[in-house]
Amino acid sequence: MKKITEMTHPTRKSEKVIQFGEGNFMRGFFNWQLQQMNKQGLFNGSAVVVQPIQQGLGSLLAEQNHLYTVILEGLADSRPVQTSEIITTISRVLNPYEQWQDYLALAEIDDLDIIVSNTTEAGIAFDPQDKRTDMPPKSFPAKLTALLYQRYQADKSGYTIIPCELIDRNGEKLKACIQQYCSLWQLEDSFHTWLENENTFCCSLVDRIVPGYPYSKAEELNQLHGYEDRLMVTAEPFMLWVIEDPSHTVSQKLPLPAASLNVIFTKDLTPYRERKVHLLNGPHTAMVPLALLAGLATVEEVMLDPDFTCFIDELFNEELIPMLDLPQEELIQYAEQIKERFKNPYVHHQLQSIALNSVSKFKARLLPLLLRHHQQQLLPPRILASLAGLIYLYLTTDCQDDEAVLALFEKARALDSSEQVSFILGQEKLWGVDLSVFNKEVSQMVVLLSNKGSRHLVDSLKNEPTQKKAE
Predict the structure, then answer these.
(1) DSSP string, 380-414
(2) What is the percent of the chain where pLDDT is above 90?
(3) Which positions ≥6 away from 315 have C-beta within 8 Å?
(4) How far is CA 361 from CA 214, 314, 356, 366, 442, in A?
(5) What superkingdom heads the lineage (predicted)?
């Protein structure tokens, strides 16, 4: 079989981006977007990839001449989508553990003025053990500080820095880490000034499911494509990138929307983060306990089940969307996209995997909206049913969660059944707030779950409006 290197011999584009991270997500998300811009003549640039850790994919990428295939699989406008495209936007990969001086030399290249990163949620962290003399230091922020200092010493303009790590306010947190290294390494005040005035740290929010290498059907896909690719990446068609850009400088450097990409430049991404947490992650958390108790196994199964489809539709329309501070039409459109993504036949999202640490997930994803309803003297029945399902699941089955969480449920099991729900709802250690105000409704639902089962509870909520709470 042919190698991927025999399939195309692209003209290399000017290096314009330094990219920390060569894993599945960045290759299926960011490099794919560069490809779409390049095809339309909007960017005409490539990325130099820096391996954040010592063991990475750099050697394998080099063997394939930095080429690989992105396979999009999913639904778009309710129709199945399957496309394959060879991506040509990586110019080279540097391993700073072996090529430290080559890495620092990137600071000398004027056109390389954009930095993107995805080093996992744990990647943006300050490590006081990192020294200025380390070649390289261990942490990503320390490596970046060294590069920034080299750029400053070369008297060059600064960078536009866009982290993609899945943490809140990622740009601000990365900048804070770098400022800590400035202090730790006793770098001069003029560098602090240059860092502040010449560089832009953008907070961003990314959204695309990228399952990665398709192990179960790799040989089949190689045969279909007519070449061997050891780095192919599968991803869903949907993608979203929200970038804070109050000065409108980033959108000029990266004209992503002009390439018909779902990229939003905004002054404040907070509403979009809320939208994702509450409308994408929230329904996942809401469906899991009730669906598991009904014997379902995957998100797709939930979305193909008439009872649960109705539950999810009404959860979106009656209880989630009305509580969010974005244009309602925009939220409704986003919700429809999410439901289509949930039905993706190519992504088998196991409910058990989503169920991990369900208490903290409920606290982050659904509890804020439950409390907003409460402030308006409203009772959202489906969010409360999800809470009841979670409590019942934890009381009656072995769940995976933090030891302290499981210990409280173990205490509850020792109580009389009539006291268990009130005990759990009153635990501020679990929820950050006393939820005893919902004891009546949640207790009734737990009894219904125990006597008649999850499906009966879900069915009883059909067409159930959000209730005005009794005074």
Answers:
(1) -HHHHHHHHHHHHHHHHS-----HHHHHHHHHHHT
(2) 85
(3) 283, 286, 382, 383
(4) 28, 21, 9, 8, 18
(5) Bacteria
